[in-house]
Write a structure and sequence with these properties.
InterPro entries: Transposase-MT_Hybrid. The protein is mostly helical. Among the domains are: 54 residues; 34 residues. The chain has seven helices and two strands; from the N terminus they run αααααββαα. It has a two-stranded antiparallel ribbon. A hairpin with a 2-residue loop joins strand 1 and strand 2. The chain is elongated and about 90 Å long.
């Protein structure tokens, strides 16, 4: 009664005793045995590389299609595993995009923003209207 939830349930202990009763306790295997089927872990280098290659080939691919293509569990490709944690991608408007910008990408964005700001200071609202017309056509 002192430990409450921190203890193993009485019925679990009874089940353990009954399963160990028949044989020699020193020969009893208390660890999980290897199971057949696909391994749960997909964080090996080959699978990471394969997922990265698939995403680079198709930015709009779904996680389940990626898993099916390289024959691993969908859960291992999903968030908090290969795509987001290891490869650093996130989903934006149905596309996988890198989470971190490279130095070159940052420099390009900074340059583009500075140019647009300079044009806006020169042209004002006319620039906005021109850009809207350009985007619509």
């Amino acid at each position: 009664m002192v430990y409450r939830e921190a203890c193993v349930d009485y019925s679990t202990v009874c089940r353990w005793v009954s399963s160990l009763k028949g044989g020699d306790p020193t020969e009893s295997i208390l660890r999980d045995q290897k199971r057949s089927g696909k391994p749960l872990s997909a964080s090996n280098a080959a699978d990471q590389k394969a997922v990265g290659k698939i995403i680079l080939g198709n930015w709009r691919i779904k996680q389940k299609d990626t898993a099916k293509e390289i024959e691993i569990l969908k859960e291992r490709v999903q968030h908090k595993f290969i795509i987001t944690d290891i490869l650093g991608y996130r989903k934006v408007s149905a596309k996988w995009v890198p989470r971190m910008l490279t130095d070159e990408m940052e420099m390009q964005r900074t340059t583009t923003c500075a140019e647009l700001l300079k044009y806006y200071e020169e042209e004002g609202e006319e620039l906005i209207h021109r850009l809207k017309r350009h985007c619509i056509n």
